[in-house]
Design brief:
- A hairpin with a 2-residue loop joins strand 6 and strand 7.
- 35% of the residues lie in helices and 24% in strands.
- The chain has 204 residues and is an alpha+beta fold.
- The strands form five sheets. A four-stranded antiparallel beta sheet has the order 4-5-13-12. It has a three-stranded antiparallel beta sheet with strand order 9-2-10. A two-stranded antiparallel sheet has the order 1-11.
- The longest helix is centred in the middle third of the chain and has 27 residues, at 111-137.
Length: 204
């Protein structure tokens, strides 16, 4: 199976995680919830607010879909979640394009080559993040940093996101009725697991 590397970015201002909770409005109350669908093959993932990470396109598509669904639900736009034809839903695609960022010139390649490229690109991304963080600590970012943040709000390119350091957050847990999502991940390799809900787990 062939795939290509894609940058997944948690464009929201809250952690996206199957283990770390974040605050959300549930009915008329604010509660701490976790994202049940932030998993792949049963393995929980955590993406801090603003964090970007390279991965295979089919996996990035999975995380992007569930992050977008979460953000749409928070806005009361439940009917726009997991559309059968995403390209025909501008509200969904506006957010999806912030989370799923294709590299210009990225080519489809074998799975083993993709894995090697992912490792190398994430190392480069980590170095870029550390440099950006050090620059912030030294107070050397100025207007350039503001420009990068503005581009990310609109949906940055992968190269632009590499210059940005991830933010950090902490908090607790709970059970909110999930929204059904029966879309299959046809591009995922055999044996891969696709969660069926925009799950929000709540702790009383």
């Amino acid at each position: 199976m062939q795939a290509k590397t894609v940058l997944f970015r948690n464009f929201s201002d809250q952690v996206f995680s199957a283990v770390k909770p974040h605050e959300a409005q549930v009915g008329d109350q604010k509660r701490m919830i976790i994202d049940e669908n932030c998993k792949w093959d049963g393995e929980p993932y955590t993406f801090e607010a603003g964090e970007a990470r390279y991965m295979a396109d089919w996996k990035a598509r999975h995380f992007a879909k569930h992050l977008v669904n979460r953000e749409l639900v928070k806005k009361g736009m439940d009917s726009d979640t997991s559309p059968k034809k995403p390209e025909d839903n501008p509200r969904y695609m506006e957010l999806f394009n912030k989370a799923y960022i294709e590299d210009s010139g990225a080519e489809a390649m074998s799975e083993s080559r993709v894995e090697d490229e992912i490792v190398n690109k994430n190392k480069d991304l980590e170095i870029a993040n550390l440099k950006a963080e050090n620059a912030k600590l030294r107070g050397e970012t100025g207007e350039a940093s503001s420009e990068v943040e503005d581009k990310n709000e609109r949906g940055a390119t992968a190269e632009e996101v590499e210059r940005q350091a991830p933010a950090k957050k902490e908090e607790k847990s709970e059970l909110v009725t999930p929204i059904e999502d029966d879309e299959d991940e046809e591009d995922a390799p055999a044996g891969s697991e696709e969660a069926e809900f925009v799950g929000l787990k709540v702790k009383e």
